[in-house]
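Notebook p. 47: complex prediction with NAP.
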Amino acid sequence: MQTDYELVIIGGGPAGLTAGIYAARARMNVVLYEKSAPGGQVIVSDWIENYPGFPDGISGYDLGDKMLNQAKNLGLTIESEDVTAIEADGECKTIHLNNKRKITTKAVIIASGASPRKLNVGEAKFMGKGVSFCATCDGPFFRDKTVVAVGGGDTAVQESIFLTRFAKKVYLVHRRSELRATKILQERAFKNDKIEFVWDSVVSGMDGFFSVENVKIKHVKTGEEKNIKADGCFIWVGINPNTDFLKDSLNSDININASKSLKMDDGGFIHTNERMETSIPGIFAAGDVRTTQLKQIATAVGDAAIAVMSAEHYIDNLQD
Ligand code: NAP
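Predicted complex, structure tokens below:
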């Protein structure tokens, strides 16, 4: 079977770039498609101190950049393209790109990652006008200002601590009375005088003239509502998988598409086995886009190494 590539990798975050590094070293005929800047979510993380090899930690941007350069130095082809659908017609997989180009391949690794979840309480109106999902990008705009941060996971706690470098006050609003974040992050947040916790509460709205001026908070137990006067609202309430391009295939004119039989969980994360095989032979998934207990750079990197090994075995067996 003749195809344009042996392997197509979708996504240029830590999982995608690691898959690229392994595939390039295995001298596979491989291309990686990334629709925006390579590096993935990691490049907007302020500081990473749980990825081995960097005893003093490393900025997310630098780590993403190092992974990208490593992949490029090994000869990986990276193209800036938006994948719109995967057609899985038996052994041949067709990748549909936004520019209407179609590419054929024997195997695919989906490493398209995840994106920040929205609250849908009116924040869309204030995007870039006080509402943000990225402290590294927007934190410096809030020097000596008051901000509300939402969430109780690693991202909310770590990024709130980062925000205190600029903001004079950070209200951290969490829907329970206990944080989900790793203990070391909790300890640092509890010690930080600039962070005030608003427990058992959710953000129910926001208002302002040109930009955010008030964030509305609702107590989940009493129903009591109050306003926090704030200049910004940072939302970190988890992540959604970037699998829309698979779902969209259902409504397109593509008659056979991956999403019809690609098993996902209720949240849209892709099911795999321990070999990173999805429910469709020849399609693998790695990193945050798959159903996992732990979503870390270290686990994404491990997934990707396994996915490439499995893809190589799959392709070898096709040739047999
Ligand atoms: P997460 O771990 O899923 O936490 C999301 C938080 O938002 C939870 O505390 C959740 O509350 C809350 N939440 C969810 N929906 C909400 C809603 N509608 N309204 C209000 N609050 C809501 O997500 P994350 O913090 O973005 O982290 C994602 C993954 O990346 C995790 O696996 C995390 O460990 C990893 N990560 C790791 C690091 C690190 O190692 N340094 C840094 C960042 C992220 P409940 O607790 O009540 O469910």
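Notes: Confidence is low (pLDDT under 50) at residues 250-256. The first helix runs from residue 14 to 25.
Next step: compare against the earlier run before touching the bench.
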